[in-house]
Amino acid sequence: MSKVVSTASEAVADIASGARLAVGGFGLCGIPDTLIAAIADGDATDLEVFSNNCGVDDYGLGILLGAHRIARVTASYVGENKEFARQYLSGELEVELTPQGTLAERLRAGGTGIPAFYTPAGVGTPIEEGGLPWRYNADGSIAVASPPKATAVFGDRRYVLEEAITADFALVHAEIGDTEGNLVFNKTAMNFNPLCAMAGRITIAQVEKLVEPGEIDPAHVHLPGVFVQRVVHTGMQDKRIEKRTISGGAQ
Predict the structure, then answer these.
(1) Where does the pLDDT of residue 205 fall: very low under 50, low under 70, confident under 90, or very high at 90 and above?
(2) Which of 69, 170, 191, 223 has the greatest number of C-beta atoms within 10 Å?
(3) Cα 103 to Cα 97: distance, rounded to the nearest angstrom
(4) Tell me, what's the pLDDT at 248?
(5) Closest to 107 in 3D by CA, of 59, 48, 156, 167
(6) Quick check: 44 and 15 in contact, CB under 8 A?
(7) What pTM was estimated for this model as a whole?
(8) Helix (H) or strand (E) holding 195
């Protein structure tokens, strides 16, 4: 059965206010920009987002953030997004900062049916002990703080318990996809895209090149179609640079 949807707007039409979204990409590499723009064209608000970061001020998730359509973000990196930092520090946005490897594993665990896992990352820090500011009051005091987490000892080492992440929808970008949802990612665009796709109850993939079943060598499939419910052919993606740095040239 073909999973192809004609337009990005049609693919995201049932994303309602309050939905939980797992969004692939790292910085601006491999982000599902067309799907994000389609959500921005709709009226969904109070979104909860799980993503490594939140784009930049005028691109990617930064578009939804700037329009105050996101209520909560779980991420590992504030990145180059000044509006993200401003909303967090002013109490307009709830933010759960989590170690990057922990975030990746929480998404993967959610996609494979593992409800929680133990990790050494964060042991003996506020990650374990609680008290990290998730939301500030306007006066800078803490309105919502992270709770303490359970720990256990295995062998001679202590570990902290982390819960898996599942989302209502996952949005990902792939270089190649077939009509049955099998995906191939381009180099470092592998980043968080497969993990987010696994964590979504409904996963929507925008693909640069759409092919028929069998045209992708099974050995080259990075994410099998069982994890993907909708595919949108969006064509070649504009490869933007998050922070351009150039040399001063020869002196």
Answers:
(1) very high
(2) 170
(3) 9
(4) 76
(5) 167
(6) yes
(7) 0.93
(8) helix 193-199
H/E element, 29: none
3-state helix, strand, coil in the chain (%, to 5): 25, 30, 45
132 to 49, 92, 137, 189, 222: CA distances (angstroms):
19, 16, 14, 30, 36
pLDDT value of residue 213: 95
Return the closest-CA partner of residue 58 out of 93, 83, 38, 76. 83
Both structure tokens of 237: 């993606």
Q: Is the pLDDT of residue 250 over 70?
A: no
In 3D space, the residue among 83, 89, 50 whose CA is nearest the CA of residue 68 turns out to be 83
- Rounded Cα distance between 70 and 45, Å, is 6
Got the DSSP string for 37-85?
Answer: HHHHHS---SEEEE-S---BTTBTHHHHHHTT-EEEEEES--TT-HHHH
Q: Which residue has the tokens 């991420």?
A: 75
What values do phi and psi take at 93, rounded to 5? -140, 135
Q: Are 50 and 167 in contact (CB under 8 A)?
A: yes
Distance (Å, whole) CA 169 – CA 39 = 12
Reply yes or no on whether the pLDDT at 57 is more than 90: no
Burial 66-98 (b: 16+ CB within 10 A, else e): beebbbbbbbbbebbbebbeebbeebbbbbbbb
CB 180 within 8 A of CB 3: yes
Cα distance between residue 68 and residue 85, in whole Å: 13
* CA nearest neighbour of 98 among 154, 26, 194, 163: 163
